[in-house]
Each structure stands twice: as structure tokens, then as C-alpha cells.
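Pasting as-is:
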Amino acid sequence: MTAEALLTARGIARQYGQVQALAPLDLSLVRGERVALIGPNGAGKTTLLSILAGVCSATVGTIDWAGGTPLPVGWVPQKPALYPRLTVRENLRLFAGLEGADDALATANGLIAHADLVEFADRRASALSTGTLQRLNLAIALAGQPTILLLDEPTGTLSPDQRHRLWAWMDDLASDDMALVFSTQSLDEAVRHADRIVALVAGRMRVDGSVADLIRLGGGDPGDPDAAEAAFMALVDGTP
């Protein structure tokens, strides 16, 4: 039986004046899946995530939700959206309160424990390292107990050890039936951590499927260990 879609976008697109940032596309998300959004700079990845997050609206198209009403969505932008002069605990308590938590402090303390931020709980956000700040950024997105989590290049500025730590947490979130969509510049990261790959090139969806689909559409050789990367570069160059 096919899992019910949490979200189904139909024909969504975004136009900025004469510039089409995102051509019309269809996309669905189901519970527990991890979707990697790949593409070169300017491909439309952030635009698509912003529309799904409700940060900006689509110029055309519709988004339908399971049950008929919007589900809670967590949004992790590239630049942390928090208050640098507040401590970790104060930030989380504030955002939990904004999300309507019955006990904002208890929610904040739970997120601090979950994100392994206990030793930084009373430190100002401005004093955190890049990796710790990104964990706080993700914890804030979880304050509203989202069903769908959207992340815009969440590991782009992290060191290998910080990246491993963050992925261990995000993989756990997916196993808890949360749908994850993340953009990345790393095809290896997409292959390792996604169940499905969506490739955008110049604002147009070129692939929505498995790694095997990417290789096939890119004209690659499945027996080549570098086939996925070669296929993706072929799609970017418009050669397949």
C-alpha cells in the first residue's frame, strides 16, 4: 500500500519580475522519508524550500495537505534565525512559547537535552561555535513539533565531525516518522542520507526518484562508482 502524502504540491512555481526562479513542478512528501534536494547555485532549491515552509508564496500552483489543513512545518534556513544576545535556553523558551507550548521552559529543556546542548544552555548564542549554533538552529525548528522538517544546506559550513553528529540526529528524526527535505551541494551526502533525490537545474525539476533514476536520466553507467556524480554533471550541463 502506498503511504499517504503529508503534502502534495501541484504546479507550484515562483516568478520574480521577468525572472522565473522556479518552473512549475509537482512534489509530494510522505511520512518518514528523507528527500535530498540537489542542484547548482541558483537552481531554485532555496526558493522551493521557502515555498514549502510558507516563507514565501508560489506565484502559481497549489499545496494540499493530508487531512485538509496545513501540518506543522519546521524550517532550518542557511542563516540561523535566532537572537544572538539570548542564551540557548532563552532562545528555545521564546520559540517554544511562540509555537504555543503549554510549558515553554520544559519544552526548551527537553530540546536542550535532545540536541546535546546542556553544557551550552546558559551561553549566549553569539558565543557558540558554528556546529553548536547549527544544532541550536535545528532545535528551534523542532520547537513546534513539526511533521515535516525543511533544511537549507544544513551541513554546508560544518566540519566533518560536526556533520556526522548532525546527520546522526536528523536520521533519528526521520526514523520517528518525520518527513525531511534537505538541500545540499554534496551528491555524496544526498546518496548517503536520502531515500529519494530531487534534482533542480535552472529552476526546473530534472529528477525525482532514486539514485538509479538519476544515473539513468543522466545517461550514466550503473557499473561506474562515479556514475551518480557523472550523471548529475551531465544534467547540469544539459548533455544527456
